[in-house]
Description:
single chain
Amino acid sequence: MVERLRELGHDVLTTEEAGLSDQEISDEEVLRFATSENRTVLSLNRRHFITLHRHQPNHAGIIVCTFDRNFAAQAERIHEAISGRERIAGALLRVNRPG
Length: 99
């Protein structure tokens, strides 16, 4: 999914690339880091990030997704959800796998 999002022109930084993986960093800390870097969070952890959005609405954007083994199709849906938007900051976007 990361590769396809990059092919579509998105600046993607994974937690691993940021040096944040395998450190038991909380979702709150991930959101805080992303906000400080003016980056949108993309997560499969829907429940927790939806709650974080409600409690901390001042962020650079949160995209929550349902898991889909077809990563390229999932990346396309994410791309469609954010393309043409003037602003993602403060928004919560839900990108679900087709039924």
